Task: inverse folding
C-alpha cells in the first residue's frame, strides 16, 4: 500500500495523535498525549512499566476507545472512530506482545489468510489456494522475514524467535504502509534480535512508516529516528535517540537521578 498523498500534504505527517486521554475508572492511563509520526520514520514509544505504551498502541490501532476529545489521524484522514478492521484496510497494521497467529495452520497458511483478506479474496477460498492465486505472495513474504525454510511448519512447531518473525510476516501480508510493532523482539536471543533490526531497517528504507514499542533500548537507539518517552501516561519528551539519552528528565524517570553524564542505552534498558 502506498497511500502517501494526504500525508505529504500535511508536511509528511503519517500518523498524528492529538489530546489522547484514557481512563479506567479513577485511574488515568493516558493523559492528554499528543505526538506525530513522519512519513517513512521509525518512531519508538518507550517508558517504564505502566507508562501507558500498550494502551497508546491500542488507541492507534482502534482496539481501545479513548476519552472524548481524543483524535487520531492517519494519512490525513480522521480515523478516531474507525474500527480496527477499517484501520487495517487503510494500511495501519499492528502486531501484539503475545503472538496472535493460528497455531494449527502452517506459516504460509497464516500469512495467506492476511494476504487473502488484504486482496479482498473470497472467504471460501482455502489459504493455500489463495496464496497460489496471489502469485505466491505469502511465500515471498516469508522469505523476506527469513522464514522461507519454515513455510510448511505449523505455527505451534516454530521456535519462539521464528514465531515472532511469523507475526511480523502476517502483518506484512495485510499490506501495511504504517506498521505498529509491540515488543517484536521479546524473548529473542541477541542473534535473532539483530535479524529483526535488519528487517525493520530494510522495511523503513523501502518506504514503510514504523512505530515500535520495545524494552530493548539498545535496539531503539540503533533503529529509531525519533523516540517518544511516556511516564505515567504523559509525554515527557520526544526527540532523537541522542537527545533522549542526554535528557536529565529521562534519566530521572529510569534511574531516579539526573547525572551530568548522558545515559547510555543499557542504563535506560528497563523500559
Result:
Amino acid at each position: 500500500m502506498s497511500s502517501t498523498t494526504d500525508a505529504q500534504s500535511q508536511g509528511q505527517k503519517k500518523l498524528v495523535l492529538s489530546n489522547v486521554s484514557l481512563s479506567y475508572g479513577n485511574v488515568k492511563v493516558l493523559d492528554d498525549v499528543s505526538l506525530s509520526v513522519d512519513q517513512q520514520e521509525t518512531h519508538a514509544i518507550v517508558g517504564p512499566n505502566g507508562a501507558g505504551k500498550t494502551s497508546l498502541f491500542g488507541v492507534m490501532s482502534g482496539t481501545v476507545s479513548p476519552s472524548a476529545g481524543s483524535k487520531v489521524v492517519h494519512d490525513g484522514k480522521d480515523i478516531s472512530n474507525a474500527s480496527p478492521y477499517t484501520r487495517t484496510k487503510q494500511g495501519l497494521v499492528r502486531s501484539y506482545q503475545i503472538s496472535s497467529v493460528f497455531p494449527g495452520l502452517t506459516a504460509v497458511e497464516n500469512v495467506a489468510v492476511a494476504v487473502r483478506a488484504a486482496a479482498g479474496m473470497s472467504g471460501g477460498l482455502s489459504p493455500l489456494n489463495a496464496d497460489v492465486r496471489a502469485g505466491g505472495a505469502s511465500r515471498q513474504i516469508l522469505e523476506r522475514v527469513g522464514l522461507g525454510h519454515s513455510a510448511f511448519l505449523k505455527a505451534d512447531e516454530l521456535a519462539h524467535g521464528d514465531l515472532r518473525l511469523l507475526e511480523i510476516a502476517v502483518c506484512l501480508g495485510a499490506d501495511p504502509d504504517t506498521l505498529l510493532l509491540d515488543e517484536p523482539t521479546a524473548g529473542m536471543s541477541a542473534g535473532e534480535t539483530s535479524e529483526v533490526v535488519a528487517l525493520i531497517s530494510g522495511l523503513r528504507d523501502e518506504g514503510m512508516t514504523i512505530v515500535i514499542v520495545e524494552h530493548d533500548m539498545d535496539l531503539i537507539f540503533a533503529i529509531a529516528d525519533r523516540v517518544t518517552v511516556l511516564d505515567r501516561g504523559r509525554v515527557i519528551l520526544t526527540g532523537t535517540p541522542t537527545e533522549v539519552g542526554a535528557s536529565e528528565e529521562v534519566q530521572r524517570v529510569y534511574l531516579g537521578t539526573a547525572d551530568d553524564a548522558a545515559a547510555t542505552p543499557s542504563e535506560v534498558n528497563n523500559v
